[in-house]
User: Fold this.
Amino acid sequence: MAAAAAVAAVLLARAAGDGNDDRRAPDTAYGEWLPVASVTAAAMDGCDAVNAVNQSGMSGTAAKSHTHGNRPGTMWCVAPQEGEAAVITFDLGRVVPLGEMWVWNYNEADTGTPESVKIHRGLKNIRIYTSADGDTWDEFRGEGYPYQLARADGSDRLAATNLNDGKRSPVRFGGIPARYVKLVADEAAGRGNWSDDGHPERAFGLSEVRFYRYARKVVHGGAIDPVGAFDAAGGEASHPEHTVNHYGMSGLDGRHDTHGNDPRTMWLLRGEPGLEPALTVDLGGTYPLGEMWIWNYNGTDEHGRPQTDRGVRDVRIYHSLDGENWTELTGEGYPYRLAQADGSGNLAATNLDGGRGPVDFGGVMARYVKLVPAGGAGEGNWGAEADGRPLYGLSELRFFSAAGIAVEPAPEWTALFSRYEGWTGADGIYSIPLNGDDRPGAAERTPTLFLFSDTYAGRVDPVSRIREGRGLVNNSVALLQGGEPDPAAIRFKWAPKTADLSLFTPHTPAAVALPESWYWLQDGLSRDGKLYLFPLLMTRDPAQPPGFQFAIRGVSLITVPLSEDGPDFARQTQTDTPLYRKLPDGGELVFGAGILDLTEQAGAPNPDGYIYVYGYRNEPSGLKRLLVARTLPDQLETFAAWRFWDGEGWSERIEDAAPLVDGVSAELSVTAVAEGPWKGKYAAVFELNTLSGYIAYAVADSPAGPFSEPAPIHYTPEIKDGQGILTYNAKAHPHLSKAGELLITYNVNTTDAMADAINGDIYRPRWLRIREIAPAS
Assistant:
């Protein structure tokens, strides 16, 4: 359509440097993966077009870093007639701002024999077309044009091949709004594919294609790129996504772009009895909201007459962390009335009526924003009705950031633990720098050991997601070389289920007295050539609810010598500790949930020479209250020398441990922060009240508090997927974080055993990034 073509022209002109805009382009962000709704192409037997998008042959879900295998039957291929081109068309299901296209070229080489190697079928010189409606197509000629795809190598772990530009760059669309993408190969064998000129084969193919939504790094005053919008009608005909996909806009840059008057590029909802005519926008992360700029409904009919009375007028505006619990915005300009559009072909932002400018959120933290028209025709809109029902419409909404804390997905780290072979999921996920340096960025200089508890080992079908061979072991580890989430740099280790043991199998006196007990791993640290771990000694407890039929019976100390190759688990030693205490009221004291090494060796910003070991008081009600003990490094194994904070000083008695903050989770972290909004503070990160879904933090001026009241900063969206899904045990990973940010994880699980069996994507850690958005210095 003309609207999409206009945006494309503007974007390409700016990319070429037309001199009309001297602003520096914002850094691009990772962009949300866009599932393909359907794919259309002719195909050879066993080479269905759907193989190019259904993840068959892929090592994991949705990420750019995943690899593709070389087995036949997992790819798309076609043998067109002479004079015909190989064509494949992807339907994304709705108009979206396109970010990047990643390609894994045809990679068949199953046996390694010459006749099995068919990587020459991979597409080579191609043309790329985009369309918003599937009828009108525009050739895309962006960075890297004319496009030549790189050849695959036939390996069983093929990284994305992308463009043959020496850098394997993806195709970058720069935000063009489109629903369809079409690839057309050159008709000639040897030009349209990588076939040898001397022995050309008219067969063309691809292994996998993945699309990602356009996104920019959010900076102070900069745009926040939403990941979607929805309304009460479900969006099938009303197209709420048009309010956030730049469709019909003159560009992507922000406040001063204009919108056209084609009604097909806008949101329009008919009010129905009993349904709130709300439009909800998902920003994709938690951000400090500054302004919302509005382009009201600007459509015209087939005769060019304005229909701007469909635009929203009086409106209530809400914000939320979770999309369920809402707070009404009542700031400057309240009660809010939106200005009417004029139906022109170049509509500037209309915003609030009376020239009062955009809506100012004042820096509130939110992931979701909801607009609810306040009334029927003539109140909630500017007068339009159809069949006695009011019509509510908008053209575009744009959001801009204020100063504050942002919490965003870290998809490149989440992808590292999305795996379909071998280690296929676990919870726990503590990270330990083996050189003991816990400063941000320190992972570049040391291997990192990850600790996991209950672990699946086996295979997950990448298409159906069904677990095949559900071997479950009680713990596992992984060793990552370097500070980047590179699948080629990580190795997982676990004991096979057939051995009837785990990597860490309890054999202390307390464990011997508890047959069939096992270890769930808590935090640990590395010092002076040793790894120190504080696992929970666990037993079955059938009296507990389904999914929670276990009980803590103690905390052990495991020491593991470190060699040049990493931990030597075969030489581990185990000791019972006094770090667990059952209380007369049925509660319990548990230590080892988080460790803060506040020594010079750990690179602590204000070292005092102590190691702080955090735990919790588990009340009979289930409330967990943060506790702390400390010891000197040379007394880690001398528990009589440990001391427990009692609210005023350090006591010898574990029973004297005083709560620092209420509502923590069973696994957590406390980090000494050297920069950013918590500079000089100690930040505790946890999931509020264990299973609430809210990631929260609390800060203190000392490792022993007092801590501030917990502040929720993010809601885990997986809970909304149903299937009995729950999330738990958020914690930070400072040494894996870059300067100025804090990486955190949380676990995802389900109480529904069947859901776990048929969806291997549920049970694995998810990663987030906390960072400060501040004015430029």
